[in-house]
Amino acid sequence: MDDLVDSGTKIAPSAHVSNKAEIGNGSTIEHGAVIGEKVRIGPNVRIGAYTVIEGRTTIGNNCNISHHCCLGAPPQDLKYKGEDTELFIGDNNVIREFATIHLGTATGHGKTVVGNNCFLMAYIHIAHDCSVGSNVIMANAATLAGHIEVHDNAILGGLTAVHQFTRIGKLAIVGGCSAVSQDVLPFSKVAGNHAMTYGLNSIGLRRAGFSSESILILKKAFRLFFSSKLPRKEALDTIQKEFGHLQEIAYFLSFIKSSKRGVCKKVR
């Protein structure tokens, strides 16, 4: 990597970087990487060998992108006709080898988004128009179909597949090899094919700094929602009345009420 662009930026002689691309100070582009003309890369980013970044792709600061990744490729959508759509990746993300993240579509949001501080392991796939929050972990070969929302601090186990238009709530954990076809409740743990809810992600909540009181309230809310004999609307109204003062409960209730695919059922 002998070619020094400016301010410590290094581009390997065998890399193919468009002269229209924007490369931030202190970034490194390794051998054989290909960077397209509409790409914008922030400062202190590492692009591994033979990684291809194309389309209107923006990558934030301090990202570490391993070798043989494919970012900003056209969406795998038959309706896509080459429209000028986007991929946005935030700051401080680790993207491991052979990961693929595609552009959005004109018929969707027009943009695929990854937040900050995510750990995206080898062979993961994020399809068009997905919105992935911050501090998300996707283990090896976890796969998101189009139009999926993954909220902050969620964890997806290896080889998990998520159906299009599904949502994964904040601080949820999805067990490995799961097939997710309905929304995953915030703060829950789910697993299986098809994925079912196994209860509250208590360990994850403690690690995230939730108080014992908040965890106890969330457990009660889960019990009311899944295990009481109340009709769903009445159960939600009871949760609101008893625990609605807690911000996490407000989010929990809003998530359920806005669900279009339904939520993962509780395991029997």
TrEMBL record:
<dbReference type="InterPro" id="IPR018357">
    <property type="entry name" value="Hexapep_transf_CS"/>
</dbReference>
<dbReference type="GO" id="GO:0005737">
    <property type="term" value="C:cytoplasm"/>
</dbReference>
<keyword id="KW-0808">Transferase</keyword>
<keyword id="KW-0963">Cytoplasm</keyword>
<feature type="domain" description="UDP N-acetylglucosamine O-acyltransferase C-terminal">
    <location>
        <begin position="183"/>
        <end position="264"/>
    </location>
</feature>
<keyword id="KW-0012">Acyltransferase</keyword>
<dbReference type="GO" id="GO:0008780">
    <property type="term" value="F:acyl-[acyl-carrier-protein]-UDP-N-acetylglucosamine O-acyltransferase activity"/>
</dbReference>
<dbReference type="InterPro" id="IPR001451">
    <property type="entry name" value="Hexapep"/>
</dbReference>
<comment type="function">
    <text>Involved in the biosynthesis of lipid A, a phosphorylated glycolipid that anchors the lipopolysaccharide to the outer membrane of the cell.</text>
</comment>
<comment type="similarity">
    <text>Belongs to the transferase hexapeptide repeat family. LpxA subfamily.</text>
</comment>
<dbReference type="Pfam" id="PF00132">
    <property type="entry name" value="Hexapep"/>
</dbReference>
<protein>
    <recommendedName>
        <fullName>Acyl-[acyl-carrier-protein]--UDP-N-acetylglucosamine O-acyltransferase</fullName>
        <ecNumber>2.3.1.129</ecNumber>
    </recommendedName>
</protein>
<comment type="subunit">
    <text>Homotrimer.</text>
</comment>
<keyword id="KW-0441">Lipid A biosynthesis</keyword>
<dbReference type="GO" id="GO:0016020">
    <property type="term" value="C:membrane"/>
</dbReference>
<dbReference type="Pfam" id="PF13720">
    <property type="entry name" value="Acetyltransf_11"/>
</dbReference>
<keyword id="KW-0444">Lipid biosynthesis</keyword>
<dbReference type="InterPro" id="IPR037157">
    <property type="entry name" value="Acetyltransf_C_sf"/>
</dbReference>
<keyword id="KW-0677">Repeat</keyword>
<dbReference type="InterPro" id="IPR011004">
    <property type="entry name" value="Trimer_LpxA-like_sf"/>
</dbReference>
<dbReference type="InterPro" id="IPR029098">
    <property type="entry name" value="Acetyltransf_C"/>
</dbReference>
<comment type="pathway">
    <text>Glycolipid biosynthesis; lipid IV(A) biosynthesis; lipid IV(A) from (3R)-3-hydroxytetradecanoyl-[acyl-carrier-protein] and UDP-N-acetyl-alpha-D-glucosamine: step 1/6.</text>
</comment>
<dbReference type="InterPro" id="IPR010137">
    <property type="entry name" value="Lipid_A_LpxA"/>
</dbReference>
<dbReference type="GO" id="GO:0009245">
    <property type="term" value="P:lipid A biosynthetic process"/>
</dbReference>
<keyword id="KW-0443">Lipid metabolism</keyword>
